[in-house]
């Protein structure tokens, strides 16, 4: 097998993160995407003696496992790669993938409590970040998600099953309005153009809607008509916030140079497990609200009685976990790098009449060692790259009896767990929570105890 060869095979296995694997003549072939049982044609990108990387060029035959109804975007959209699998099959595959990752790092001897379903497996997302573009060169304006394997082409996802009708109404109105106005979309290649993103957020339990249009500063367009058009929409949730963000940052991400409130307020309310949370436009909030309630309940079960404990909530975001734990704790300290999220977390605590939480802005790897109180329990909920090695060292130096690790990336989780083991912690309990149905992602909760 050599570079540029075209090969055909049936997919044997799906690894966590959306990679397929097949063994051909003792060679381990890796391919992005694909579903177990699919027959595919692929081109060899890299070939070594024992391994090869290939790219799918044609789906020859669907997998017999693919019996679920899909949406009209499924074949081309890079969003829900496993929507065609029945939900029970998705859960079995994800559970196996997480266990394989634990085994790959020789992590044994813990109690595995299986995988918890998402309360909803469609229409579960409370936030979507859409991008403006076109589907083909100089075609009509599109607004949505990137096409599978494409960096530039954007498809309007008006049949997406991950969100409810409110998202679709805002998306459709916005793309049609700006297509009529013939405003140019922002091109990431030459950094020219105006329309960049549309971010829609919904308070699932409060039925509030935030709409944030993100543009460059390259035009001076009056947004009054657009704002009025949005307000005339017949949405289930009440529109409480319409924002215009100016972003001239060259990176292909939603950043904020200037924020203008076109209507209402600059935050959204949400409720989780009876607590109120103000969510600001750029701070993290779990994207599956009903799933987040289950996730936090799993963490609570793992902790059991935390009466009079001093708790560290590291990577605290808007302070959800800390506040869920606060009622029965003596004191909670949260650390979060996004200052705006910290400000909101402290406001949220006040709103919930919680006075034993202190959220601090900073990088966990630099700040946690400055905390003076000795924790009985540490909860870490890091972003996808996991916990920095320096932070693991500092966290372990507190010698708390228990650590709860909530992870959205089991690949970095298992690597970090080995590091925690080196500092004298052992994995006691593991449970997965499917926060992201129809996609390859999964949340995993781990309880570590000091040996
Ligand atoms: C997976 S989110 C968890 C948020 C929160 N625990 C929740 O459930 O809503 C990870 C958070 O870590 C923050 N973060 C990323 N790197 C960080 C760092 N080095 N130090 C502190 N916080 C960080 C992100 O801004 C984000 O809010």
Describe this structure in words.
23% of the residues lie in helices and 33% in strands. It is built from 9 helices and 23 strands. An 8-stranded mixed sheet has the order 7-22-23-21-20-17-18-19, sandwiched between helices. It binds S-adenosylmethionine. S-adenosylmethionine binds at residues 284-286, 315-318, 320-321, 335-338, 341, 363-365, 381-383, 408.
Give a short summary of the structure.
Helix content is 23%, strand content 33%.
Low-pLDDT parts are none
- Rg over alpha carbons: 23 Å
**Average pLDDT, to the nearest integer?**
95
Count of individual beta strands: 23
Read across the widest sheet, the strand sequence of neighbours is 7-22-23-21-20-17-18-19
Share of helix, binned: 10-25%
CATH superfamily of the largest domain: Vaccinia Virus protein VP39
- Indicate the structural class: alpha/beta
């Amino acid at each position: 097998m050599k570079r540029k060869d075209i090969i055909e095979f049936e997919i044997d296995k799906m690894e966590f993160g959306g990679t397929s694997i097949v063994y051909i003549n003792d060679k381990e072939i890796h391919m992005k995407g694909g579903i177990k049982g699919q027959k595919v044609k692929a081109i060899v990108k890299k070939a070594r003696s024992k391994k090869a990387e290939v790219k799918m060029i044609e789906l020859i035959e669907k997998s017999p496992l693919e019996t679920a109804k899909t949406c009209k975007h499924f074949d081309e959209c890079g969003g829900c790669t496993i929507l065609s699998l029945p939900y029970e099959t998705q859960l079995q595959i994800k559970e196996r993938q997480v266990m394989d990752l634990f085994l790959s790092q020789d992590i044994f001897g813990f109690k595995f409590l299986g995988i918890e379903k998402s309360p909803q497996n469609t229409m579960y997302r409370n936030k979507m970040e859409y991008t403006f573009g076109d589907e083909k060169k100089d075609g009509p304006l599109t607004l949505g998600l990137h096409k599978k394997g494409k960096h530039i082409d954007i498809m309007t996802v008006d049949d997406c099953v991950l969100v409810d009708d409110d998202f679709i109404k805002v998306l459709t109105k916005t793309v049609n309005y700006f297509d009529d106005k013939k405003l140019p979309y922002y091109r990431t290649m030459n950094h020219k153009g105006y329309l960049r993103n549309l971010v829609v957020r919904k308070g699932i339990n409060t039925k509030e809607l935030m709409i944030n249009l993100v543009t460059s500063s390259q035009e001076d367009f009056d947004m009054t008509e657009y704002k009025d058009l949005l307000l005339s929409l017949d949405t289930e949730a009440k529109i409480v916030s319409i924002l215009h963000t100016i972003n001239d940052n060259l990176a292909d991400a939603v950043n904020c140079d200037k924020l203008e409130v076109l209507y209402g307020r600059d935050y959204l309310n949400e409720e989780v497990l009876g607590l109120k949370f103000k969510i600001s436009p750029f701070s993290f909030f779990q994207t599956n609200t009903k799933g987040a309630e289950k996730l936090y309940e799993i963490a609570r079960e793992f902790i059991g009685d935390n009466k009079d404990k001093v708790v560290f909530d590291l990577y605290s975001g808007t302070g959800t976990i800390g506040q869920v734990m606060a009622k029965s704790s003596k004191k909670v300290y949260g650390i979060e790098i996004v200052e705006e999220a910290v400000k909101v977390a402290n406001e949220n605590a006040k709103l919930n009449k919680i006075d034993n939480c202190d959220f601090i802005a900073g990088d966990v790897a630099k700040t946690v060692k400055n905390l003076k109180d000795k924790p009985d329990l540490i909860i870490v909920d890091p972003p996808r790259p996991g916990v920095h090695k320096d932070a693991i060292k500092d966290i372990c130096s507190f010698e708390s009896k228990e650590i709860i690790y909530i992870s959205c990336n089991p690949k970095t989780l298992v690597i970090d767990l080995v590091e925690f083991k080196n500092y004298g912690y052992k994995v006691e309990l593991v449970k997965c929570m499917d926060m992201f149905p129809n996609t390859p992602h999964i949340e995993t909760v781990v309880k570590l105890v000091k040996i």
